[in-house]
Amino acid sequence: MEQRKGRRLVLFPLPLQGHISPMLQLASILHSKGFSITIIHTTFNSPDPSNYPHFNFCPIQEHLTDSEASTTDALSLLLNLNIKCVAPLRNCLSGLLSSVLEEPVACLISDAVFHFTQAVAQSLGLPRMVLRTGGASSFLIFAAFPLLRESGYLPIRESQLEEPVVEFPPLKVKDLPVIHTNLPKQFYQLADGMISGTKASSGLIWNTFEDLEKSALTTARNNFPIPIYPIGPLHKCSLASSSSLLPQDQSSISWLDEQAAKSVMYVSFGSIAAINEVQFLEVAWGLYNSKQPFLWVVRPGLVQGKEWLESLPDGFAEDLNGRGHIVKWAPQLEVLAHPAVGAFWTHSGWNSTLESICEGVPMICMPCFTDQRVNARYVCDVWRVGLQLENGLERGQIERTIKRLMVEREGKDMRNRILLLKEMANFCVREGGSSCQSLDNLVGHIMSLPGVVFRCQETPVY
């Protein structure tokens, strides 16, 4: 722990699991560098303050209705949060700035998707920095939406899905990071707000590292008029407590302890993705027929219209004879680090992708929406450390893909390549590594920002 800096940082995470975790990891890293930390958070998907006794937590009331708080319509949720959090955040920040006279607030760090925070911070004279919780490659695609719309790639047409996006090889049109929605105009506005808000900020913090996305980071530095700090993988630098919004089933680890090395297919589709009953059964039979041991996370709500496992045929679990283990949620970092895990069937969220790379575990990719599609294409066609289920979920294809990855030479080659990426990830966070140097630069940048306090409610003093 470094000497206290005499500066407070205020962090505001987007209240979704894949965004809360990296923000709290960043908070722990910056706390270890001597900054005091305040977390502003919504009451929706609130983190547990007891896991972080060294932080201050300030809840705000965003007043989402039950229907608005549903993650089944992710776009509407994000649009509502960017509207309903404006006044509560401004009031909370004003209160914080007026009550910390001895310790100036250096800046607000907010999620890139919370684009409204730029205007709120500016109205208070407070510098704002951005944490982008996804990869650099996908962020550049969001930034290029105006070009992609002008060139006819967007909105996506069924007849174009397999066509290449020549401006962004090796992407195909079907890989573009969109949400299927009845509100396409609002989606483009959200993306535009994210990019313009980021360009107007005091700096961009990225959960990625140079050796993984060197080309994209170079392009970003040329296109964004702000300092950029790739300091990931954040979970490798942080000793943060669990930020899971769901209870983690530790039986996952005891079951893995009984399995042979590199034999288990770990299956988890993240905290939001949903599939229908037919797809669920294809996944189940594909796993069953592969003859490989599997640890399968079936989150309540994963199967549309179902509570949990009631769609499985009678006797399915018993017929496995212990070869499969199904849980509602797993401690993913521990699972991926376990020697029994040989592959990861993932929705290709950025956190899951990074975590798999950091443990040297090759992937089967089943992206569902937005940047997951870009991540999957990079995993399979750029880094060549995974296979993508390109044509939906069909049990025979699933079985063959599992065997390609876990049994055949193709999978061994992918494992060798991802072990090299693992070495790069380990090196970049060590003393002298690119992420370690970038973190030092970030700390220096934050210290150069004018600290802000209020002597009264209206007058900021720097």
Automatic annotation (TrEMBL):
<dbReference type="GO" id="GO:0080043">
    <property type="term" value="F:quercetin 3-O-glucosyltransferase activity"/>
</dbReference>
<dbReference type="GO" id="GO:0080044">
    <property type="term" value="F:quercetin 7-O-glucosyltransferase activity"/>
</dbReference>
<dbReference type="Pfam" id="PF00201">
    <property type="entry name" value="UDPGT"/>
</dbReference>
<keyword id="KW-0808">Transferase</keyword>
<dbReference type="InterPro" id="IPR002213">
    <property type="entry name" value="UDP_glucos_trans"/>
</dbReference>
<protein>
    <submittedName>
        <fullName>Uncharacterized protein</fullName>
    </submittedName>
</protein>
<comment type="similarity">
    <text>Belongs to the UDP-glycosyltransferase family.</text>
</comment>
